[in-house]
Amino acid sequence: MTKDDLNIEIEKLKVSLEAHEExxxxxxxxxxxxxxxxxxxxxxxxxxxxxxDIEDAIQRAIDNYNFDDxxxxxxxxxxxxxxxxxxxxxxxxxxxDLAGEVYAKVExxxxxxxxxxxxxxxxxx
Length: 125
Description:
There is one protein chain. The chain is an alpha+beta fold. It folds into 2 domains: about 1-45; about 45-110, no CATH class. It is built from 3 helices and 2 strands. The chain has a two-stranded antiparallel sheet. Strand 1 (about 75-80) and strand 2 form a beta hairpin. It is flat. It starts with a helix and ends in an 18-residue tail after the last helix. The mean pLDDT is about 85.
């Protein structure tokens, strides 16, 4: 083989490699979608309207939460070199209370059913 033949062969291999890389990307994307569908197949299904209701409930819970209560925050003050007092650290401590408010609003949208697992129950005789 000559040098020109080898250069042509290298170019052919590069083109072939690029085509296969694109196929691998497509297959990876298809695999990701199939995996997500498998994870989602046993989840309860909600309509777009129901998701909208959940979003509204969460927004109402957050809007109605009292963020002005300073006891909910842990903070540290500091003094700068030019004698300015600054707030150097602030942390919201009552995230569980906020989560409870959100949960209560979302829960009010649904009727709660008892879960029963027939495999765990023993038939009575």
